[in-house]
Design a protein that fits this description.
CATH superfamily of the largest domain: Nucleic acid-binding proteins
Shape: elongated
Largest sheet: 5 strands, mixed, barrel
Strand content: 25-35%
CATH topology of the largest domain: OB fold (Dihydrolipoamide Acetyltransferase, E2P)
Structural class: alpha+beta
Distance between the termini: 123 Å
Number of domains: 2
CATH architecture of the largest domain: Beta Barrel
Strand order of the largest sheet: 3-4-5-8-7
Number of helices: 4
Length: 246
């Protein structure tokens, strides 16, 4: 899609918070666009590229960053907090969070991007932002023209045609939804039963521990009573030993 068409995508009731937008009645979650990088800004948690495709609008493509999980110690220690932060972060894709190398994405480079959509509220009217998933470097004009042709064909053959589901498609989707709902219910029931069994097992264990403690407590009390009686007899015997003999 062109950038100006991406900004024209609409939201629909019932799809809030899912990052799904609509061109006419076509649901769109991923977009492809191509253009030249005009700015590149680095932040702690993201890299922001501004793209211009000469359609009359520009768009920001955001490449997320995440901490490196397998860090290796370098021989030269870092000296500043900014250097340390940069060394511990790496660019990742939007959905799988897989590492992605964007070192070739420099100002003036022509690139084809694929990513998910996210609204940006700079003004009262939200504009779209693309969260980067993949990219392809368009090395020459022929590559650009091929993308323009693909974009035009997709717009005419797909997006300009009403999205229609036949009765068989609707029935199949209904069956899938019902099957998924039954699966969710069964999973919930299994989870509840598992939690109930775990609770019963825990209660049985607590009762067993309590019975054992009570039995041991009776033994301790009996031992204390025996010791008390022995001490009492010992005190009597010592008292008799201390009495003077006649």
């Amino acid at each position: 899609m062109s950038i100006v068409d991406i900004h024209r995508l609409q939201t629909r009731r019932g799809f809030e918070g899912q990052n799904i937008y609509f061109h006419k009645n076509h649901p769109i979650q991923f977009v492809c666009l191509a253009g030249y990088i005009v700015t590149r800004d680095e932040y702690e948690r993201r890299t922001v590229l501004t793209i211009d495709d000469s359609s009359g609008s520009i768009i920001e493509v955001v490449c997320l960053k995440a901490p490196i999980t397998d860090t290796t110690e370098t021989s030269t220690p870092t000296t500043t907090a900014a250097t340390t932060t940069a060394a511990e972060m790496i660019n990742v894709t939007s959905t799988t969070r897989a590492p992605i190398d964007i070192s070739i994405l420099r100002i003036g480079t022509c690139v084809k991007f694929k990513g998910t959509l996210s609204p940006k509220f700079k003004t009262h009217t939200p504009t779209m932002t693309v969260i980067l998933e993949r990219f392809w470097h368009l090395t020459d004009t022929n590559s650009e023209v091929r993308f323009w042709n693909e974009r035009s064909r997709f717009m005419i053959d797909v997006l300009s045609q009403p999205w229609y589901l036949s009765a068989d498609d609707v029935e199949e989707l209904r069956k899938q939804a019902q099957s998924q709902e039954r699966k969710v219910i069964k999973d919930r029931q299994r989870k509840q039963e598992r939690q109930k069994r775990e609770q019963e097992r825990e209660e049985r264990y607590q009762r067993r521990v309590m019975r054992r403690w009570e039995a041991e407590q009776k033994v301790r009390e009996a031992e204390e009573e025996r010791v008390r009686l022995d001490n009492k007899r010992l005190e009597k015997w010592l008292a008799l030993k201390r009495e003077p003999k006649e």
